[in-house]
């Protein structure tokens, strides 16, 4: 019996309660499922099992209706007219006693949610509508704001304290993943309100930008004022174990913090060859995108403990302050994801930088052993720790690397002037590159993930390869801002494109 199956049998044995609900749902999702989702979001979270009756008997769901049930559920919870704010939940299939059941894990949310315009809460007896109970609604809002530091409202923080260029960048990133994304048609204030980064305290009547909004999009001076201890310390420590070989001290917004962490990863960690099917993928990116997201999204920002990202010989370890929901090493077979900052997490999901809740950890475990030879470890506590094994060069290659690092300080002064001149010339050339709107959108689209020709056409809204598209792509390849994933077979039907380091630098200058 797998760990997941054992966990579900334990839930069934315990019966329905504050955090567990059974629904028959043989051939369709019933309306009361969404009321339970709303109540779980508003209370302490919980698990809904479809295909189990009230007596705890496994009745299963109709296999023929399985695909439609899952589709209807995902569509509904992403519809603000059904659940508002929308939730991002997944449905897991589990075979139990030879019958198919569906497990829906609903985390506690930092927001107050409504189902069909009504507010539901949870008690031991089930879901109940509290919409018309003013005191209970006010208590619910107060509890959410007191529990989740990301919801703290700064009444004197306004839209002008946020970076409009970052808002626009996030709007374009969201549009790159979903060409019909609602943010594309919103102004800046509508966007931050939609993302719950501007809220109202229903007890005091105060309105303002939240801590989540300041951390994600704020100007550096505003972040320093709200969270003076906010920083992520990135260290390379392989040769000089008493100090460090390289370091980046990051105390800016979470969007650019993510960029800086991933740049540090790409600079100091190898990207080993890995085939998934017939496609080469970067497992380094898949693993450390999740690591970077974890130390930014799931950090407890009321704690002054500085986040750390340390690359050592043979491993990477991270530490960040945490509001624990358990202690010890997490078991991926029985692990239940718990979002520490749901609003920040949802914002990262909107721009395509994180996966559905829990799937990022499964992806990290899937690729971790292939990358470093051992499964990553995640340890829950007041400080959340991750340890990921990484490949190292061996023998003569490793000795050469060590000698190179040890000689770095001696060569630094001699090379500084020459490097400075080269960097100045290169930066001058990049600053003089002017991109058209189509070219800029191609570079942006290829920055977050590799793109095929068809996906680029979808991104630009073209039905076929127009002359303008061909000219733009050819120009970007010639300038070295975009490169082919399969350079030896440029006309391959499987050809894909990605943004180069030079392309990213030019993009930053354009912004």
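^ structure tokens above, recovered residues below v
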């Amino acid at each position: 019996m797998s760990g997941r199956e054992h966990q579900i049998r334990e839930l069934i044995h315990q019966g329905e309660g504050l955090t567990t609900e059974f629904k028959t749902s043989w051939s369709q999702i019933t309306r009361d499922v969404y009321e339970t989702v709303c109540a779980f979001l508003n209370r302490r979270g919980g698990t809904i099992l479809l295909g189990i009756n009230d007596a705890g008997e496994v009745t299963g769901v109709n296999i023929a209706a399985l695909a439609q049930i899952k589709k209807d559920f995902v569509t509904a919870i992403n519809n603000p007219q059904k659940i508002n704010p929308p939730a991002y939940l997944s449905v897991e299939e589990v075979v139990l006693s030879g019958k198919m059941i569906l497990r829906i894990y609903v985390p506690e949310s930092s927001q107050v949610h409504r189902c069909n315009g009504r507010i539901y809460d949870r008690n031991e007896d089930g879901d109940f509508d509290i919409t018309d109970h003013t005191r209970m609604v006010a208590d619910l809002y107060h509890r959410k704001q007191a529990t989740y530091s990301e919801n703290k409202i700064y009444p004197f923080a306004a839209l002008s304290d946020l970076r409009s260029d970052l808002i626009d960048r996030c709007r374009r990133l969201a549009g790159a993943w979903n060409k019909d994304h609602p943010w594309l048609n919103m102004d800046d204030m509508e966007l931050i309100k939609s993302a719950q980064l501007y809220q109202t305290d229903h007890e005091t009547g105060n309105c303002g930008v939240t801590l989540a909004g300041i951390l994600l999009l704020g100007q550096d001076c505003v972040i320093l004022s709200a969270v003076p201890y906010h920083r992520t310390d990135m260290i390379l420590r392989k040769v000089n174990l008493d100090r460090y070989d390289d370091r980046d001290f990051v105390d800016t917004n979470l969007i650019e913090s993510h960029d800086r962490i991933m740049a540090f990863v790409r600079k100091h960690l190898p990207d080993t060859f890995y085939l998934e099917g017939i496609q080469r993928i970067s497992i380094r990116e898949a693993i450390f995108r999740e690591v970077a997201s974890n130390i930014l999204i799931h950090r407890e920002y009321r704690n002054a403990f500085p986040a750390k990202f340390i690359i050592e010989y043979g491993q990477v370890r991270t530490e960040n302050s945490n509001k624990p929901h358990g202690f010890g090493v997490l078991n991926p077979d029985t692990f239940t994801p718990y979002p520490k900052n749901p609003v920040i997490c949802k914002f990262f999901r909107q721009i395509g930088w994180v996966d559905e809740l829990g799937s990022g950890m499964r992806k990290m475990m899937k690729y971790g052993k292939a990358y470093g030879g051992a499964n990553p470890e995640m340890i829950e506590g007041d400080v959340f720790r991750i340890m990921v094994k990484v490949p190292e060069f061996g023998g003569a290659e490793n000795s050469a690397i060590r000698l190179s690092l040890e000689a770095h300080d001696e060569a630094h002064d001699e090379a500084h002037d020459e490097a400075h001149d080269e960097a100045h010339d290169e930066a001058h050339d990049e600053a003089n590159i002017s991109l058209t709107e189509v070219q800029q959108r191609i570079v942006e689209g290829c920055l977050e993930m590799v793109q095929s020709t068809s996906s680029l056409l979808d991104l630009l809204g073209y039905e076929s390869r127009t002359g303008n598209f061909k000219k733009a792509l050819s120009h970007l390849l010639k300038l070295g801002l975009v490169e082919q994933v399969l350079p030896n077979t440029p006309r391959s039907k499987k050809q894909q494109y990605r943004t180069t380091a030079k392309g990213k630098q030019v993009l930053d200058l354009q912004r």
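The chain is about 40% helix and 20% strand.
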